[in-house]
Amino acid sequence: MKYNHILIIFFFFITFLSANEKNEWQFQQFDIYFENDIFAQTDGQYSSGEKFSLLYYVPQSDFFVYDLFLDENKPSDKYISFALVNQIFTPNDISIKELIVDQRPYAGWTFLEAGFHKSAKDTLQSIYIQVGMVGPLSQAEHIQKFIHKVTGSEQPEGWDNQLKNEPGINLRYVYNWRVVHNFERIESAIVPYVEGDFGNISIGATGGITARIGWNIPKDFGMSTISTGSETGISTYNQRQNRFNKKWSFAFNFNVSGSAVLRDIFLDGNTFVHSHSVDKKYLVGSAGFGFTSRYKHYSLDYYYQKQTKHYNSESSPHGYGSLILSIAF
Fold first, then answer.
1. What is the CATH number of the domain that holds 42?
2. What's this model's pTM, rounded to 2 decimal places?
3. What are phi and psi of 120, to 5 degrees?
4. What's the confidence (pLDDT) of residue 70?
């Protein structure tokens, strides 16, 4: 499947879901995510991720998904997001052509994502539906080789050993809380969150907390990475129109989280056919830090995350960095 075919499917996907309500939607934000372990000066494990995301404010909607959220009586704003995402996973040594038995498989996951979000004054709930492909049809081999060519990195040699083609369907639910503390001119916000994943790609649960401290912090729920949290930059209830009252803002971000992992296709291997796999760890953790810088309608997030070992024979903990460029409307 070529990239132009993926884009056509992506925009058809958006048009289909918005057929009855698209004229009421208000385009809010466009995000570009780039995640890579080049920021940690490594090349393996979670190697890279890219995400192109569109966020819409939905003034009115009777779509049934919004009825699934908790806290039905809370005043809230509704949003919907659409994204095209690719993630790439490799063993530590990408110079070896042969299968490396004690290291994780080569794997790519390219998918379309629809997110439904309900934002109250102090809570944000999100439901994500992800549909895509694992295996050669994900085009991960070509994407990684292109990225490595651009960055001058070593070309990966072992993609013949990647997971086999498998359609993927995954659901994710995320619940965020927001607690604010201000100290004179310095502002801070604490955002605890829980999330659950279910599907043939992953099954598990995560709990974590994000802390932000800075100046002119927006009344929103902060940034998220591709794999963790809700959509970046969703405002709290009734604050959407106030996002640009102050021209600039800056914040330091800190995060710690822990996950219980029942299934991870990128470690457990294909669901329906035999493939390479490793013995995963059922409990993993991560911690990270970064910053958010915004001027008017433009913002840049950087976040560095360090993860504990994800499988028993993994040689060391893994780190990667996330860059998010956002344009708000």
1. 2.40.128.140
2. 0.90
3. -105, -170
4. 83
